[in-house]
Every structure is written in structure tokens, then in C-alpha cells.
Specification:
Layout: H1 7-19, H2 23-35, H3 37-60, H4 62-68, H5 70-93, H6 102-122, H7 125-134, H8 147-178, H9 183-205
Length: 209
């Protein structure tokens, strides 16, 4: 089908990979617990938007550049690490501010959650390397240069990711709802979330090919 083979095996394998705890899972859980269900959902959409970005990179051969060039790999790696550490520091030093315009603040927060997920995933070089090694196993050899199979597999992977992380967000957000009115706990949770982001950034910075 359009150069893709063993599609159902791909779906099952992709689901198992997505369900395996990793940086994406920690990111979504962190957002859901600390800031609620919508934060988790928008982060989920952002992360899987990053999956689509990596899919097009792989289809166009740009991911191969990152895989082969030590300099390109290092630049992407450190940009991703720096962004996560920035998020961590911002969470640690942030304080709850009065909400003068609830609708505007809400819209800005939703966009922020989306772009945080998008940038975090896009600047993770391990995702690019994973797609380059995983997707070709389900593409017919004579179609390996065709971008369409990569796009089909990437979109499928993203849809599975959205489904799984959305379910995870709903369950994790129940904890957030119970402590929503506790400002002291909220501030402590922000600091804990910040520490998690910093550790994730350090992990990416120490990533090797």
C-alpha cells in the first residue's frame, strides 16, 4: 500500500514504542499534573506536531544530514537541551500572577503549551535517528527514496501518539484538579516540574549517536 508493507505490524510496534516511558511521556505528564488537562492535550498536539516535522525531514532526507554530520547533530542536540533547561528555570522561578484577562491568558497559555511540545520534540535528535532506523523497516525497498511512505508512517505514528498521550493526560489531570486551589502546592509543583525539565535537558545534552 503506497510503498508501505506490514502496516499492521508497524501500528502495533509504534504503539509499544509510544507507550514506553520517555521524554515525551514525562513532558506530557508534567504538563497535565502541574497545569491541568488542557495543558496536557496542547502539549500532546505539539509533541506530535514535532513528529510530523521529523517525518518531513526524513522524507526529504534532512534527517540523514543530522545523522551523518556531527556538527549538525551537536547543534540540534544543544538547542534542544538549552530550551528544556530554559523551561525548567522558568518554572522554578515563576510565581502565580493575578489573572486580569482570563480568556487572553488562557489562549496564550494554550499556544505556549503547544509550541513547547513542538520545539522540544523537533529539537530532539534522537527522534530523527529513531525514524531513520525504524521507518525503513516498513517501506518496500524499491520505494525507499519515495517520500510518500515516510509521510504515511509518520502521520500514523503521530495519530497513535495523540491518542495515547491524550488518554494519559486525562488520567494525570485528575490529580491536578484535586489540588488546583492550593497555591502553595502549586508553587512547589512548579519547582518540581522545573527540575524535571532541567534533568531532561541534561539528558539530551549528553545524548550520543
Amino acid at each position: 500500500m503506497f510503498g508501505v508493507e506490514n502496516f499492521y505490524v508497524f501500528v502495533i510496534t509504534a504503539l509499544l514504542f509510544i507507550m514506553t516511558p520517555g521524554i515525551d511521556s514525562v513532558f506530557v505528564l508534567n504538563k497535565s499534573v502541574s497545569q491541568g488537562k488542557k495543558a496536557g492535550i496542547y502539549s500532546t498536539l505539539g509533541i506530535n506536531g514535532g513528529v510530523i516535522v521529523h517525518t518531513f525531514f526524513a522524507a526529504l532526507g534532512l534527517s540523514m544530514l543530522v545523522a551523518k554530520s556531527a556538527m549538525a547533530f551537536m547543534i540540534v542536540k544543544y538547542l534542544g537541551a538549552a530550551y528544556l533547561i530554559y523551561l525548567g528555570i522558568s518554572s522554578i522561578i515563576s510565581k502565580k500572577q493575578p489573572n486580569f484577562d482570563a480568556i487572553e491568558v488562557k489562549e496564550q497559555s494554550n499556544k505556549k503549551h503547544f509550541f513547547s511540545g513542538l520545539i522540544t520534540n523537533t529539537l530532539n535528535p534522537k527522534v530523527a535517528l529513531f525514524f531513520l532506523s525504524f521507518f525503513p523497516q516498513f517501506i518496500q525497498k524499491e520505494q525507499i527514496e519515495n517520500p510518500l511512505p515516510f509521510i504515511i508512517l509518520g502521520v500514523t505514528y503521530a495519530l497513535i501518539g495523540i491518542l495515547w498521550f491524550s488518554v494519559m493526560s486525562f488520567f494525570a489531570a485528575t490529580f491536578s484538579d484535586k489540588v488546583k486551589g492550593n497555591e502553595k502546592f502549586h508553587n512547589r509543583l512548579n519547582k518540581f516540574s522545573g527540575a524535571i525539565y532541567i534533568l531532561m535537558g541534561i539528558k539530551i545534552a549528553l545524548t550520543k549517536k
